Amino acid sequence: MLVEDTPSLARVYTEYLKKAAFTVTAVETGAAALDALREAPPEVVLLDLQLPDINGMEILKYVSGQQIPTAVVIITAHASVNVAVEAMRYGAYDFVVKPFTADRLMVTVRNAVERLRLAQIVDTYAEELARSRFHGFIGSSLAMQGVYRIIDSAASSRATVFITGESGTGKEVCAEAIHRQSPRRDNPFVAINCGAIPKELMESEIFGHVKGAFTGAVADREGAAARANGGTLFLDEICEMEPGLQTKLLRFIQTGTFQKVGGTKLDKVDLRILCATNRDPLREVEEGRFREDLYYRLHVIPVHLPPLREREDDVLSIAHQFLLDYAAEEGKSFSRFHPDVEQVFRAYSWPGNVRQLQNVIRNVVVLHDGDQVMLSMLPSPLNQSAQSLYPQQRALAAVAHGAGHGGGPGLAEQGGVFGQHAAGQRGVAVMTHAAPEPRQVRPLWQVEKEAIEEAIAACDGNIPRAAALLEISASTIYRKRMAWEAEGRA
């Protein structure tokens, strides 16, 4: 939109812009500009400050105050430093002094459009990164943000999604999220666990049966495929399916038709198939336990759910939600975790993932009460894990002591459970507050690099665990190591 009260100049600027393939709306007054902004904000506003009814600065202030997503370029023949500063203070993108050439105008407008579009992309990405909850998921780690984006992109499609991940990572939660995000959300979501149903009954569970098809079939029964018509069928632990049924499933996926067990009628359904496994599906194919043609039919959009140990501080967010839910359910007063418990949660490997964390919190809430969860309340194996953390804490404390130039006590000196444990063990040297020996002052990046590498070594190469002990995110370690390599400091 061009806001210019001199008709001859307005025509010249409009011709400049039209030759560069811009669509231009020209107005001559501030009131007309405000009306146009309210109705349909343009990408760029070329704004003359000297208008017949109001000062152009009032329009700029309006755009700034209403947070209208448009880039404002001030064009004026009455330039001064004060005016330029005020315009920039209210968010003007650029300040162009009359007279100016067509090239100057084109460069300014193109840059303004590009900046606005980049800002919109950044805002969208930042909004995604800020998501700490997504349908049934809790967590804001970078690993989970990637999962959320795949679900967003795949949900509207009819393509089959193959979900992989360790047991307890939330594969069914992922399938439900895809269904709830999809156009089929108002239709049924039917889940079948292929590993929990006897193989002789599995075909009937999926496709149904007619009366008398086998012993115990006393009436016709619809299977999961018919119940999911119009919606989503989720086949969990798909790699547990026996080979004969895999062949029938492949034909069903290809044609959308099936026969009930013992029946002769061909039924057709419209549904989307999602599947999941905690195994490596490609290895199952290589070892002959899973049909290769079925694998490629199902493995259209892969989604891998990261284990809890690779999700940075998501473990604390999930644990806190479980704590509040179970405390309300059991009538207990728990509301938080002691910092030492949080440290244990960060460092523990969680082989059972979210399901194991859920069971741990349930155990604590049922068997104890109080305002906060203490180390002494943790069940096995978390209590053993707490004990195993202490040697690592002492190693990290030594690193911190060596890297800190004597600027404060190490972890073993700070009190709390780690300091008490270190001081109470025979044969363990406890650091004191003795004045450090004079040492050479080194660059901060060297000290930081040594501390991080020592932490990784103390955790046997487990970067997420080292990050937890250093109380930083794993992404910070990865980013710093990449920067060191790029700068030749690796």
From TrEMBL:
<dbReference type="InterPro" id="IPR003593">
    <property type="entry name" value="AAA+_ATPase"/>
</dbReference>
<keyword id="KW-0547">Nucleotide-binding</keyword>
<feature type="domain" description="Response regulatory">
    <location>
        <begin position="1"/>
        <end position="113"/>
    </location>
</feature>
<dbReference type="GO" id="GO:0005524">
    <property type="term" value="F:ATP binding"/>
</dbReference>
<dbReference type="InterPro" id="IPR025943">
    <property type="entry name" value="Sigma_54_int_dom_ATP-bd_2"/>
</dbReference>
<protein>
    <submittedName>
        <fullName>Sigma-54-dependent Fis family transcriptional regulator</fullName>
    </submittedName>
</protein>
<dbReference type="InterPro" id="IPR002197">
    <property type="entry name" value="HTH_Fis"/>
</dbReference>
<dbReference type="InterPro" id="IPR002078">
    <property type="entry name" value="Sigma_54_int"/>
</dbReference>
<dbReference type="InterPro" id="IPR027417">
    <property type="entry name" value="P-loop_NTPase"/>
</dbReference>
<dbReference type="GO" id="GO:0006355">
    <property type="term" value="P:regulation of DNA-templated transcription"/>
</dbReference>
<keyword id="KW-0902">Two-component regulatory system</keyword>
<keyword id="KW-0238">DNA-binding</keyword>
<dbReference type="InterPro" id="IPR001789">
    <property type="entry name" value="Sig_transdc_resp-reg_receiver"/>
</dbReference>
<keyword id="KW-0804">Transcription</keyword>
<dbReference type="Pfam" id="PF25601">
    <property type="entry name" value="AAA_lid_14"/>
</dbReference>
<keyword id="KW-0010">Activator</keyword>
<dbReference type="Pfam" id="PF02954">
    <property type="entry name" value="HTH_8"/>
</dbReference>
<dbReference type="InterPro" id="IPR058031">
    <property type="entry name" value="AAA_lid_NorR"/>
</dbReference>
<feature type="modified residue" description="4-aspartylphosphate">
    <location>
        <position position="48"/>
    </location>
</feature>
<keyword id="KW-0805">Transcription regulation</keyword>
<dbReference type="GO" id="GO:0000160">
    <property type="term" value="P:phosphorelay signal transduction system"/>
</dbReference>
<dbReference type="Pfam" id="PF00158">
    <property type="entry name" value="Sigma54_activat"/>
</dbReference>
<feature type="domain" description="Sigma-54 factor interaction">
    <location>
        <begin position="137"/>
        <end position="366"/>
    </location>
</feature>
<dbReference type="InterPro" id="IPR009057">
    <property type="entry name" value="Homeodomain-like_sf"/>
</dbReference>
<dbReference type="GO" id="GO:0043565">
    <property type="term" value="F:sequence-specific DNA binding"/>
</dbReference>
<keyword id="KW-0597">Phosphoprotein</keyword>
<dbReference type="InterPro" id="IPR025944">
    <property type="entry name" value="Sigma_54_int_dom_CS"/>
</dbReference>
<dbReference type="Pfam" id="PF00072">
    <property type="entry name" value="Response_reg"/>
</dbReference>
<dbReference type="InterPro" id="IPR011006">
    <property type="entry name" value="CheY-like_superfamily"/>
</dbReference>
<keyword id="KW-0067">ATP-binding</keyword>
